[in-house]
Amino acid sequence: MLDALERIKNLLDERHWTAYRLAKESGLPQSTISNLFNRCNEPTIPTLEMICKGLGITLSQFFADGELVQLTPEQQKLFNEWVTLSPEDKLLVEQLVKKLKTAK
By the number of CB atoms within 10 A of the CB, which of 19, 36, 43, 102 ranks highest? Predict the structure, then answer.
């Protein structure tokens, strides 16, 4: 099983980032990042989504084994918009994409 905190630490080390930099890049309060590490709390999915956004990766990439696949600028733009949507809006987008695919 993946240790999310260990994975975050590894990603920070790869980038030579501090917890402070992660807080700034992800838009999370410094106290949230500090509490994750100091109290060994596992991040919630919304928190992890924001951390991944700050790191410039997707949740899939976070949980993937092996090499990270880099997103194109177009994919990154869509991902950045996606993570700000409500669950209901995400469902609507998924339904729209399915309709677009079948309309061809």
Answer: 36
Q: How far apart are CA 81 and CA 41, in angstroms?
A: 27
| Co-location of 97 and 57 in the same domain | no
What's the pLDDT tens digit per position in 14-32?
A: 999 999 999 999 999 999 9
Give residue-wise pLDDT tens across range 38-50. 998 889 999 999 9
Beta carbons within 8 Å of 35's beta carbon, 6+ residues apart: 41
Residue (of 64, 46, 48) closest to 5 by Cα position: 48
For the entire predicted model, the pTM comes to: 0.62
Residues 47 and 26 in one domain: yes
Q: Which domain holds residue 104?
A: 71-104
* Pair (59, 81) in one structural domain: no
